Amino acid sequence: MSDQRSKRHLAKEYDACLPFKSGTRPIAAGRKILVVDDEIDSAETLCALLELLGADVRIATDATAALEAVTTYRPSVVVLDIGLPDIDGHEFARSVRRQADAGITLIALTGWSQEEDMRRSKEAGIDHHLVKPLDMSKLEALLTALQTSPTS
Fold it and tell me: What is the pTM of this model?
């Protein structure tokens, strides 16, 4: 992987602009978000959308890199796929809860949509469980709620 592409996975810049109302901030302004997905196209697309919402976004394509990014990048939100190649998303969540500040919000974004899948996510310490394909309005609503919550 080239240095530029490698950097992109720990920082991707886009020159983009959304028509925000005068005097308002983007809903994710300044929020550090880590996207964890081994499907690079999906990760980069979500990264671009989150940056359009004002977030500072990094990408990790496996759980091992994501665990390192949790300690070095210190995101307030992690959006993760459950079916990762090295460590599944549930084990990743348990590791984050053991090692990091409990203030990190974990959001599963996965194709696993059964009640049992959602229960397992909750038991692993995942705060929210969204199903692919992503309904961006649901993620926006979550980010808005986090922005206004007293613990965010």
Answer: 0.81
